Amino acid sequence: MDVTGDGQIIKTILREGNGKSPSNEARVTVNYVGTFDDGTEFDSSLEFDPLFLIIGSGQVIEGLDISIKTMKNGEKSKFRIAPKYCYGELGFHPYIPPNSFLNFEIDLISVEENITQEEQKEKPIRNEWNLPPIKKLLLGEERKNIGNQFFKEGKYDECLESYQHAEDLFEFFYGMNDEEKEKAKFLKSQIQLNIAACYLKQKKYNEAIEKCVKVLDYDNRNTKALFRRGQALLAQTHYEEAKKDFEKVLEIEPENTSSKTELKKLEQIMTSYR
């Protein structure tokens, strides 16, 4: 069965289910196994807890969301999902190669419709504290990519939810070796930068500054963090502090056009106050 009509997601039913398919914002419980075309397994819920998720909330890659919405309670199906709906042209080095087709065998255990926001929070997405480091990194990248798509669409509330789910995975780095820990810290900083960009769009400048500061604690020469903090400070009319951030960006990247533009704008504002 061609789920998307363009051959990008192909479905094979292994066991029929019953009832209606889940709608957006339904809470579902699934087990799944993810494999490459050669049969190599890259992810599975079977070793841990089933996956609890809210359909359409950005907790998993788009291909999984679309696939689960075609299923019925008790159904078990296999899906072959094209890169467009997974990790795309870039993949997720070193775990998912670029342009990878992914196969998921999904067992839809339960569907709960018409649940409240409070009820949505009653069950964890999964027992994420016990996930192996590689699975945490994969899941974090998934949620970051979903957030990026929401950002492009101007859906900033959904975008923030996806990014915050991703950031929560890396509150601690227990069980990670040095290489995994560094990858997790870098991914966390990317997610925090994206959260700051969302807050800027929502004019929540204090929150944007807070996320930029966390990134700068990890990397004090991160030009995106300096620039976004400068934007937030400028919006709050903290002109001298904003100027320092934009100048610091140019010290690190002398040809940074965005900072040059913001500095010119800032100089005009400050001149008008003299």
Structure description:
The protein is α+β, with helices and mostly antiparallel strands and 274 residues long. Helix content is 46%, strand content 15%. It has helices at residues 62-68, 117-120, 133-152, 156-168, 178-201, 205-218, 223-235, 239-252, 257-272; strands at 9-15, 27-35, 41-44, 51-54, 76-81, 102-112. Strands 1, 2, 3, 4, 5 and 6 form a 6-stranded antiparallel β-sheet that branches. Helix 3 runs parallel beside helix 5 (178-201), helix 4 packs antiparallel against helix 5 and helix 5 (178-201) runs antiparallel to helix 6.
Strand count = 6
Low-confidence stretches: none
User: What share of residues are in beta strands?
Assistant: 5-15%
Largest sheet: 6 strands, antiparallel
Q: Structural class of the helices, strands and pairings?
A: alpha+beta
Whole-number mean pLDDT: 90
| DSSP helix fraction | 40-55%
Give the terminus-to-terminus CA distance: 69 Å
Helical stretch count?
9
Could you state the order of secondary-structure elements as H and E? EEEEHEEHHHHHHHH
Cα Rg: 21 Å
Shape, per Cα inertia axes? elongated
Explain the layout of strands and helices.
Blueprint: E1 9-15, E2 27-35, E3 41-44, E4 51-54, H1 62-68, E5 76-81, E6 102-112, H2 117-120, H3 133-152, H4 156-168, H5 178-201, H6 205-218, H7 223-235, H8 239-252, H9 257-272
Antiparallel strand pairs: 1-5, 2-3, 2-4, 2-6, 5-6
Helix pairs in contact: 3-4, 3-5, 4-5, 5-6, 5-7, 6-7, 7-8, 8-9
